[in-house]
Amino acid sequence: MAITEINLPNDEFVRRTRVKDGDGKLYLKCINIGQGDCTFIVCPNGKRMMIDGGSTEWGDTDIDKVRANLPYKDDELPIDVLVMTHPCRDHYNKLGDLLGKSSVGMVYYGYDLGQYKAFAFRSWANGWGRYKGKAWDYGGMEELFVNKDKPAARLLLDGGGGCKLTAIAANVKATRSNTDSYAKNTASVVVLCNFGTDRFLIPGDATCDTEAFILAQYKDKLDQLKLKILRVAHHGSASSSMSAFVNATAPPLAIISCSKKSKGHGLPRRTVVKRFLPKLQDVASHDIGYFDDEGGNECATLIEDEAGLPETNLPFVKVSTEKDLWETSFQGTYSTVLTGK
Ligand SMILES: [Zn+2]
Questions:
Q1: Is 105 helix (H, G, I), strand (E, B) or coil?
Q2: pLDDT per residue over 20-68, tens digit each?
Q3: C-alpha angle with apex 44: 142 to 40, nearest 5 degrees?
Q4: Ligand 1 center to 257 CA (angstroms)
Q5: 298: exposed, middle or buried (C-beta count within 10 Å: 0-12, 13-18, 19+)?
Q6: CA of 21 to the centre of ligand 1 (A)
Q7: How far is residue 4 from each of residues 25, 161, 198, 295, measured CA to CA in Å?
């Protein structure tokens, strides 16, 4: 197992990831940002990628606490590649607060850029208001397409030492539901990291449609989808994580970005959590929670991600488990160091 260190003290994480050309290891941080998503990766060659930075519960999430996870100095945090998986605000609306005037290299995004409408984000990206004069100094922007029409995976960042960060889906078309948010979620950029024997996947809010596309692309090489770590799609929603995808990826560790306070969202769902548990490795007993949708359908598409989300009355259940399911709402930020060996 090449996951060598789990949850380095933050000071140590920051100290090590400030090494300019990297130290040959890969640092992965799935940041607890409330009901949202934010993933930070420092490659073996020191290059940095951020995937998403948003939360619908900012009132309950301390931005300084979130920023403390990032190796800042004097407001400078060069990000070589920023990926905005899709325009649901819990994935991008806090990027300005997180990155401030730091420079960003290449920006890749899924779905129509005009749909990234959150005012704070636009202010930052356009250098308005308090960002005036310190506008986002990006190297370029590109909408990614890795779908039926254009199925070839796209290399987003060469992390050195054989580490490659690749988009294996982006702008996949929705077929199972015609709601706006399902279409956006399905379009999520899905980032696969390959580093020697280590492999992890950050799928944004990808849906069953996105997963079906990925499975079709890998049908003759399914062993290349076996993961060490999976950040569970869409906060453990029932519109993602179909059985075939869980079986194919079979991660020993699954991370769900969620918030206990987001009762209205009802995420994660019991049916999804139960699908993962048999795949996960054994660890010490700890608490997890889920919203009980027992008997719910696979690939149910009713759950939405936006403000107009339908309320759910599903009961919240807290249980203890000895399986390696990490919920940011219970266990906070997850970080690890991968060696690729
Ligand atoms: Zn989301």
A1: strand
A2: 899 999 999 999 998 899 999 999 999 999 999 999 865 556 788 888 8
A3: 55
A4: 9
A5: middle
A6: 32
A7: 10, 17, 11, 38
Give the side-chain half-sphere CA count within 13 A for 179.
Answer: 16
Distance 45 CA to ligand 1 centre (A): 30
Distance 233 CA to ligand 1 centre (A): 8
Q: What residue spans define the domains of the chain?
A: 3-338
First to last CA, the chain: 8
* pLDDT tens-digit readout, 12-32: 888 888 888 999 999 999 999
CA of 202 to the centre of ligand 1 (A): 12
Q: pTM, whole model, 2 decimals?
A: 0.94
Concatenated DSSP letters of 53-99: EEES-GGGS-HHHHHTTS--BTTB--EEEEEE--S-GGGTTTHHHHH
Name residue 167's beta-bridge partners: 154, 191
- Sign of the Cα torsion 254, 213, 164, 79 reads negative
Q: Which residues surround ligand 1, an ion (CB under 5 A)?
A: 90, 205, 305
CATH architecture of 3-338: 4-Layer Sandwich (3.60)
CA of 85 to the centre of ligand 1 (A): 10
Phi, psi of 279 (to 5 degrees): -85, -20
Find the 89 Cα to ligand 1 centroid distance in Å.
8
Q: Is the distance from CB of 44 to CB of 102 less than 8 angstroms? A: no
